[in-house]
Amino acid sequence: MAELDAGEVELLAATLRKTMSGIRGRELDAALTDLGWPELLADAPDLAVPMVFRLLGETGSHAAVLDDVVRQAVPLAEDVPVPLPFAGGAWALWDRDGESGGSVDEELPLRTIASGTDLPDAALAAGRRALGWWLLGTGHAMLALARRHVLERKQFDRPLASFQAVRHRLAETLVALEGAEATLNTSDGDLGALLAKAAAGQAALTTARHCQQVLGGIGFTAEHALHRHVRRTLVLDGLLGSTRELTRQAGAHLRTTNTAPRLAQL
């Protein structure tokens, strides 16, 4: 695929957003194939992965693109889903032809299995970066919902956005998301990918907590969209290692090597 200029990238992103906003699951898998996702992933993964996965989070849609990213480094038949490690030593399959409802997030065609085979380091790193961008997009979707709520709703004849406690929570959320994005943008190597996934997971969990608090009672109900993003965050955080597990793994690595590698040039 020829290198895309800035205008073409912007047009592609707009097309993907519009597509993801209307469909999901197997229908979205087919639409992404028609839009050239396999070719873009093969030829320009540094462009394809951040764009597609962040948009999945922002739109609340889902597709089996994580399986596509991981299987690039796993020698499996094309019609066989890749077993993915999950938090707590569990295993899961993202079955693009399966039915949804097998996980905390009822919309995802994700089901648990008894066991799996350890993935190559390259596959883990690629999958963690992709999940990091997905978590980042989900975090921004939750923040947008909370921001809209506090601008529209009033208490004591004042917009909720005027209260300092609300502002502090949303400001902390934005700082966490911006930090996660910076980590993802410098996530070279296996350790960088591990830390980026952990940072994005922590940012999304922080966002879910603060936005839930800001939205109050309505954020707990099925009438509001927040609960879908919270469930999505919990599932994505667990895939390929949870934030807590990856943080401990990074600490163990530093203790073993007795060095802290430079992850970014400042």
Automatic annotation (TrEMBL):
Domain Acyl-CoA dehydrogenase/oxidase C-terminal positions: 116-243
Keywords: FAD, Flavoprotein, Oxidoreductase
InterPro entries documented for this protein: AcylCo_DH-like_C, AcylCo_DH/oxidase_C
Top-level taxon of origin: Bacteria
GO molecular function: acyl-CoA dehydrogenase activity
Protein name: Alkylation response protein AidB-like acyl-CoA dehydrogenase
The organism of origin for this protein: Nocardia transvalensis
